[in-house]
Design brief:
Distance between the termini: 43 Å
Strand order of the largest sheet: 2-1-3-4-7-8
Helix content: 25-40%
Number of domains: 1
Strand content: 5-15%
CATH class: Alpha Beta
Order of helices and strands: HEHEHHEHEHHEHHEHEHEH
Structural class: alpha/beta
CATH architecture: 3-Layer(aba) Sandwich
CATH superfamily: Alpha/Beta hydrolase fold, catalytic domain
CATH topology: Rossmann fold
Number of strands: 8
Oligomer: single chain
Mean pLDDT: 90
Largest sheet: 6 strands, parallel
Length: 290
Amino acid sequence: MSSAQSQAARKPIVLIHGMWMTPHSWEKWIARYSARGYDAIAPGWPGVDRSPAELREDPSALKGLGLAKIVDHYDGIVRGLDQPPIVIGHSFGGLVTQLLLNRGLGAAGVAIATAPPKGVIALPPSTLRTGWPGLKNPFNRNGLAPLSAKQFQWRFTNTLGRAESDAIYEEQYIPGTNRAFVEDAFANLSGKSPAAIDFDNSARPPLLLVAGGADHVSPPALNKSVLKLQRKAASATELKEYPGRTHFTAGMDGWEEVADYALEWAVQHATAGVPAAVDAAPERPATSPA
C-alpha cells in the first residue's frame, strides 16, 4: 500500500441512504472509495438491517421511525469514529447529512438530491407530487409510505424504460416511513421541527449540494433554495448540477463522475485535514448558482 493510500485508509466516509432505499444503494460507491484507500461505510437507518426483499416482506421496523431518531442514530455512529468523517447522503440522507453538519459533526458533507430542511418555503410541483404517498394521510404517522413500481419509476428512474426501472425496483426498493416524511413536509409549521437548521451556524463544516436536472423529487430549484439558506454559514457551500440525471443519480450510468466529484470536493474543503484521494478524477469546477 502506498503512503497516500495508508493515509487515506485512516479517513472514514459515512454514506447515508434515503427514503425507499437501503445501504445496498451505496455498494458501488463503497467499492470505489475503498479502492482508493478510504474506510467507507454505509450504516442503515434504525431497523434497516436486512436485505430489501426481507424488509419488503416485513417492514414493521420502519413504522413510527422519525427523523430525530434517524439523525441521532448517525450522530452516534459519527461520534464513535476515531476522526471526523466525510459524510455523504442521498435524498432524505442528504437532509440527515445537513442536520449532522449543523451539530458540528463531520469534516465535510455532501447532500445529493437532498430533501428540504425547515426554511424552504416554496416546493416545486414535482416535489409535492412525489410526497403524495406519505402525505395523503398525515395523521397516520406510524404507518408506511409504499411505492408501486410505476410510482418508483416516476420518482427515481424517470429516464429509464419500464423493464430496467422494474429491475432496480426489485433490487433496491423498500417502503418509506410516514413519520419522517410528515415531519419534514410540515417542518415550517412546527416550532420544534427535527428538520430545523441554524443556517448562521459558524461551526458548520463545508457543504456541497448535488442536483440532477431530470430529478422529480429534488430538482435544481429546490437545491437552489437550500443553497441560499445554507450560504448564510461562513464555511464553504456550493451546488453542483448534473443535467439529465434523475433521483437515482447515485446508481444510474455515470455515477462514477458524481462519486469522484463529491469526494474530491469534500477532500479539498474538509475542515479536518483529509488526505487527497488516490488516482482521483481530474478536477472539475463546481457550479454555484446565486
